[in-house]
């Protein structure tokens, strides 16, 4: 690329291409476009390259870069990923969810008591997801407060936008030492939130994180709902991932109308809530999601790897429930959001094979879910998700001149450049 120098006597060269979703269209392509980023990393202008002349004088501090052979797209938003499970991603997918949690997940998560172990894995997962083009991630850590704070620090240091959750659970029959009492969980959640907010990391926020109803007593769910409400915080958990889990919740919470009702009655369904999976939700439950503004993180790699279910994304969207995509490492074996895009399409196509009348998701719709849809699902779309004036410039810069085209480039080459809030972060290389 080269800096574009304004001169009235020169024939103007074409400027950059911007590909993004808008609130009205799945994909908008702005060719010969111009985007200005201010000194705080916010988008100050987006429009036609023809306007470069008009911009030059009043906004003299703008650097205008000619990027004819490249395009920009918004950074991708991973709405559900377990940072702590990155250490065994790609292994141990030979049993269904509830057994998988007991056999592999809880024993590994218990290791995060050791801060050096945590530092090593968390550094790798933040770097890897950034390289894969994830500019925003919504993380589960473990029950350990100090290690969860460390994850927040590492995301901040590498320049990734992140919601970070200290996991809360007071029920664990299989690994009794990997759990808390409701009082410990409440106290440590308050400490986690207080300490993380004190750091004033510009890109990192805490998220209240009950693991899921089978791991939490009603008392604990109540405490967490109250903490989230009193501090106006994000909330994340899991819901209706497998049929076995749905039956278990019915047994554990017999006085509630549904799995969704368990969270709802503890004030855990708000417009800042994101629930992973939701493969087996009823129409009534989806209605409750719509009414409360809660969203779903669709994690197709995980749903297939653990044989959990096939979420009908079209049905969720028809219910006007917000939905983003997640990798769900390590139930999902890939930390790449491009993988989540491909698996979302695969799942949708598989539903079409079963029912030829099914209206398969388009590539454009899935692109939207991976970017703007994810930022809406996390209620972060005031700051990120697409290229609108006032949002932070979270972007991937893809060079189409590279041999093989952009997709091969993402798979095998050096890869696009990644920006968060206007700043270049680690080089992008996807290793699926
Ligand atoms: N439900 C409760 N905990 C987990 C987890 O760690 N992974 C997945 N996929 N589902 C869960
Ligand atoms: Zn999960």
UniProtKB/TrEMBL annotation:
Binding note for cofactor: Binds 1 zinc ion per subunit.
Pfam families membership: Amidohydro_1
Gene3D superfamilies hit by this protein: Metal-dependent hydrolases, Urease, subunit C, domain 1
Alphabetic keyword roster: Hydrolase, Metal-binding, Phosphoprotein, Zinc
Pathways involved: Purine metabolism; guanine degradation; xanthine from guanine: step 1/1
Gene Ontology cellular component annotations, sorted alphabetically: cytosol
Catalytic activity from the UniProt record: guanine + H2O + H(+) = xanthine + NH4(+)
GO MF annotations, alphabetized: guanine deaminase activity; zinc ion binding
Domain Amidohydrolase-related: 72-423
Enzyme Commission designation: 3.5.4.3
Cofactor: Zn(2+)
One GO process term, biological-process aspect: guanine catabolic process
Quaternary structure and partners: Homodimer.
Function in brief: Catalyzes the hydrolytic deamination of guanine, producing xanthine and ammonia.
Similarity comment: Belongs to the metallo-dependent hydrolases superfamily. ATZ/TRZ family.
Official protein name in the record: Guanine deaminase
């Amino acid at each position: 690329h080269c800096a574009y120098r304004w001169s009235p006597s020169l024939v103007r060269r074409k400027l950059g291409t911007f590909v993004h979703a808008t609130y009205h269209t799945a994909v908008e392509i702005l060719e010969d476009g111009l985007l200005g980023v201010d000194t705080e990393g916010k988008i100050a202008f987006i429009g036609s390259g023809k306007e470069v002349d008009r911009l030059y004088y009043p906004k003299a501090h703008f650097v205008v870069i000619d990027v004819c052979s490249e395009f920009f797209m918004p950074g991708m938003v991973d709405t559900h990923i377990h940072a702590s499970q990155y250490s065994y991603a790609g292994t141990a997918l030979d049993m269904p969810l509830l057994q998988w949690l007991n056999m592999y997940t809880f024993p590994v998560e218990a290791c995060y008591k050791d801060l050096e172990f945590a530092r090593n894995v968390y550094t790798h997962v933040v770097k890897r997801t950034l390289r894969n083009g994830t500019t925003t991630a919504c993380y589960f850590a473990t029950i350990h407060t100090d290690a969860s704070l460390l994850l927040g620090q590492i995301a901040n240091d590498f320049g990734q936008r992140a919601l970070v959750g200290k996991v809360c659970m007071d029920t664990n029959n299989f690994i009794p030492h990997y759990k808390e009492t409701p009082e410990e969980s409440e106290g440590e959640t308050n400490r986690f939130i207080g300490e993380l907010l004190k750091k004033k990391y510009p890109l990192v926020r805490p998220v209240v994180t009950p693991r899921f109803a089978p791991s939490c007593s009603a008392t604990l769910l109540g405490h967490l709902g109250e903490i989230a409400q009193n501090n106006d915080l994000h909330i994340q958990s899991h819901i209706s991932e497998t049929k076995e889990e749905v039956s278990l919740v019915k047994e554990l919470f017999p006085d509630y109308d549904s799995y969704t009702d368990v969270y709802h009655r503890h004030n855990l369904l708000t417009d800042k809530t994101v629930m992973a999976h939701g493969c087996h939700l009823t129409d009534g439950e989806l209605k409750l999601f719509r009414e409360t503004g809660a969203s779903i993180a669709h994690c197709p790699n995980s749903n297939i790897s653990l044989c959990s279910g096939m979420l009908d994304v079209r049905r969720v969207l028809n219910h006007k429930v917000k939905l983003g995509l997640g990798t769900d490492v390590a139930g999902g074996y890939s930390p790449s959001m491009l993988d989540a895009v491909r698996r979302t399409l695969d799942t949708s196509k598989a539903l079409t094979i079963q029912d030829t009348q099914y209206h398969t998701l388009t590539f454009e719709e899935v692109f939207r879910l991976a970017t703007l849809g994810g930022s809406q699902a996390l209620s972060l779309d005031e700051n990120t998700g697409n290229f609108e004036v006032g949002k932070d410039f979270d972007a991937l810069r893809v060079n189409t001149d590279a041999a093989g085209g952009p997709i091969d480039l993402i798979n095998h080459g050096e890869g696009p450049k990644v920006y968060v809030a206007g700043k270049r972060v680690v080089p992008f290389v996807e290793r699926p």
